[in-house]
Amino acid sequence: MAYSQGRRWGHMTTNVSESINAVLKGTHNLPITALVQSTYYRLGVLYAERGQQHQASLASGRVYTDDCIDKIKCEVGKSNTHQVMQFDRNYYSFMVHETVNPREVRPIGHFKVNLQRKLCDCGKFQAIHIPCSHVIAACSYARQNYLVLISDVYKVVNVFNIYKEEFPPIPNEGY
Q1: pLDDT band at 172; cut points 50, 70, 90
Q2: For 76-134, how does the pLDDT look when each residue is reduced to its tens digit (9 = 90+)?
Q3: 131-135, long-range: CB within 8 Å, 24+ apart, which pairs?
């Protein structure tokens, strides 16, 4: 993940394979046709449930997914403890100093933020494409809206578009 350059969107390969294993749980010893059929039906049900979930979110006027909003709230809370120094007159480059232990494995640090390039030294912003606390602090200092830096992938409308496709039921072979 350290060298992904943002192409993994915060996902580790082992986590994705564990998710697939969880979906296939209980079907490992089945013949291949039963395995494919089980996977198809599980995905059909999952798409219907998630489609309804995101349709309701869209109807309620939400712009970003719940996971994205939860992440942003956490980062906003951390950003309130940062000190920001401006390093250019156009409000692009900043130095952000943490003043409180961020409850992470790394120590308190100093991070360069470039809003124009969408970069932060901590790497979280580039990895998950949601502003980290350092970027939020820099945006607040520059009186800019940090929500515009959230990737469109996290918008409810885009997630809904994924789940709007339907799986047609497979007809009985006897027919």
Answers
A1: confident
A2: 999 999 999 998 888 789 999 988 766 666 667 899 999 999 999 988 898 889 999 99
A3: 131/72, 131/75, 132/75, 133/75, 133/76, 133/77, 133/78, 133/79, 133/82, 133/102, 134/79, 134/82, 134/96, 134/98
